[in-house]
Structures are given as C-alpha cells and as structure tokens.
Design brief:
The protein is built from 10 helices and 16 strands. It is α/β, with parallel strands linked by helices. A hairpin with a 6-residue loop joins strand 9 and strand 10. Bound molecules: adenosine monophosphate and magnesium ion. It is an enzyme of class 2 (transferase).
C-alpha cells in the first residue's frame, strides 16, 4: 500500500491535506496524526472494519481496546451517562491528555472497545487532531501510531519509520508536547480509579476529587494475582531493542553504579547508552550519554523519553542504563513507562 505523507505547517494553507485525511477516515481508511500526547493512528471509531485495520497495521492484540477521540465535550451520543465527577474532570481537563472510561452506548462497536461494556474517550488539545476529527464528522479511535510494543512516536519521522506502506495517510505536525500517553481514569466506579498515569497527574486529579485512587495492579512489579484494569497495561511495552536497566538510589551511588556497569560492558565489547538528566550528564565518562532534560523539569523528561529510547535503537546499543525518577507529579508516568520498557529490571543501590 502506498502511504501519502503531508506535513501541516499552516492550518489554513494546508486545509486541503486535512480534508483529504478526514475523507479517508470517513470512508473507512487509516490515518496517523499528531496529538499533544503522542502521535495517533486513527480510524472511524464507529466502523468496525475501519477499526480492524488499526489492529492489523500495529499488530495490536485484539483484547486491547482503543481510545475514542472526540472534538466536543458533549459525549452523550457515545456513553450511557456522564456521572458528576466525570463531568467535572471533563470540564477541567478537556481538551487535554485525559481519557475518561464510561459505560458505552451500542453505537460503539465491540471491536473498538475490545468487547468491554465501557469505552475510553478523550478530547485532544492539538489543533490538527481537533480539526481532523471535526472534518471527518465521526469520533476517531486512535492508539499510538507505533508498531505494538515499540516506544510511541512523538514526531512524524517515527510514524513514517513504523507505518510507511501499512496505512493510507500520515499527517505530520509539531512534535508531541506531553510525550507520554494520556492519563486514563475509570469513571464507571466510585471513587474513580487511575488506570494509567500520564500528563494529567494524580495530584491534579485529586484537586477535583480527593478520593480518586490508582489501580494497585500498575504499582510495583506485575503480580500474577492482580490484573491491571486497563487490558493494555499487562503487555510489555515501550520497549527499545536493547536491554534497559533502571538504577535506583541516591545520586552518588547511582552515578557510581552506572559507571561500574558501563565499564564492565565496555570491557566485554558491548555498546551501552546512558539516559541521564542534564544535571548528571557530565558524570559518565564512558558510554553514549543521551540527555532526557533537567531533573527540575520532569515535563521535559517525559517529552523526550520515547524519542530517547528510539535513539538508542538507532545507535544499535546492546544495553541502556537509566536513573530512576521520583514518582510524584509526572514522575509517576515517567517511571511507569520506564519500568515497562525495562521489563521491571530495577537495580537498587
Ligand atoms: P493506547 O491507545 O495504545 O494508548 O492504549 C490505550 C489504553 O487504554 C490501553 O491500555 C487500553 O487497555 C486502555 N483502555 C481503552 N479502553 C479501555 C476501557 N474501556 N477500559 C479500560 N481500559 C481501557
Ligand atoms: Mg500505545
């Protein structure tokens, strides 16, 4: 299949490209597009055949439901009801990186919700995404625009790398601002539960409703007896080709341990990359240092995380080492993605 690529630089001048992409979605095709979290791979959420093409292009497990993207805060056509707290969260955080899980109406096909009675819905804030949804005239089901298991793409080049030849159209735009996927809150239960941490932090959510909790199954290492409530959270994910290990401890010990391990790898003729904060980046004399951003700005670290993992793949390193981050604010989402990318290989020092 030939994939058309169009970069949207100016929404007015490039409107014909957007219209063409919207027409493809309406007609049952598949289009990659920018959002503020990561790039998405979209199809008409109400068309089962179209949605099947997303699963096929990504190699996504069939039991992993898709998030439905909308261009309006009014979602009455899609869900049975919007409870009071869900409405407050929508009013406060939409458009933005927050997905709300609610009981679905029949109009949402089982393919989209992976046979669940509920559906995840989000209104993105990216202008290109919003315009695409508006022009296509239908809600757009969209997971991240990567091959399943790989780190999510935060720019158009990475979409092309994974999906060229597999889908109809790739719309390019600015780099994703948040860099990690949306926060998911299950509002079918009381109190609501965070199923996946993201750019809207637990602290921000609790300002709206202080009793919001977090799914125990996504805290700490995976356990046989505790299944995550978001089906997708059980899969190994975000993984670079190289083996990633997280080093957790105070700064001095972390630096010392990383240098010791790097030395060892180099003696064994292995290539190794170190994902580091700006502050520590000059502490590692050997190995390829990739800077994630300042420890004082974890939003920047989140924004650069997936791209950095992909850079490690470009460099064809054998091993990657990364320091751990504090798990508050957006640090919770960063550590969730890092832990999964590392297959929970965490060395405490
Ligand atoms: P992605 O689109 O790749 O960011 O993945 C979407 C995530 O949302 C996956 O972890 C899904 O399991 C989760 N998800 C989507 N819909 C639901 C739902 N109705 N209930 C629980 N989790 C959901
Ligand atoms: Mg994904």
């Amino acid at each position: 299949m030939e994939t058309k690529v169009a970069i949207i630089k100016d929404m007015n001048k490039d409107i014909e490209d957007l219209k063409e992409a919207a027409r493809i979605i309406y007609d049952g095709g598949v289009v990659a597009f920018p959002t503020e979290t990561v790039y998405g791979l979209g199809a008409n959420a109400l068309n089962e055949d179209a949605v099947s093409k997303i699963f096929e292009a990504k190699g996504r497990p069939q039991d992993n439901p898709l998030i439905v993207h909308v261009a309006s805060k009014n979602i009455d056509d899609l869900v049975v009801e919007v409870p009071e707290i869900a409405q407050k969260l929508i009013d406060k955080f939409w458009p933005g990186p927050l997905t709300i899980i609610l009981n679905k109406k029949e109009i949402i096909p089982n393919k989209t919700s992976a046979n669940l009675a509920s559906v995840g819905i989000r209104m993105p804030s990216n202008n290109i995404a919003l315009k695409l949804i508006e022009l296509s005239g239908c809600p757009i089901a969209a997971p991240s625009a990567n091959i399943s298991g790989r780190p999510s793409p935060t720019d158009v080049e990475r979409c092309i790398e994974d999906l060229n030849g597999k889908i109809d159209f790739i719309l390019g735009g600015n780099k994703s601002d948040v860099g990690v996927e949306s926060t998911i809150v299950d509002c079918t239960v009381m109190p609501p539960v965070v199923l996946r941490p993201g750019g809207i932090t637990l602290e921000m959510l609790r300002e709206v409703y202080s009793d919001i909790t977090i799914d125990k199954a996504i805290q700490g290492k995976p356990r046989e007896d505790l299944k995550p409530k978001a089906p997708g959270m059980k899969y190994r994910h975000y993984a670079p080709k190289a083996k990633l290990r997280i080093i957790k401890g105070n700064k001095e010990k972390t630096i010392e341990k990383i240098n010791e391990i790097v030395q060892n790898y180099i003696e064994n003729e292995k290539k190794v990359a170190i994902l580091s904060t700006e502050e520590l980046s000059n502490k590692f004399p050997q190995g390829k240092v990739i800077t994630l951003g300042s420890e004082k700005n974890l939003n920047e670290v989140a924004r650069n995380l997936f791209e950095s993992l992909r850079k490690c793949d470009d460099l064809k390193v054998d091993f990657i080492l990364c320091q751990a981050f504090e798990e508050d604010g957006v640090g919770l989402a960063i550590m969730n993605r890092l832990n999964k990318a590392a297959g929970f290989d965490i060395l405490e020092v």
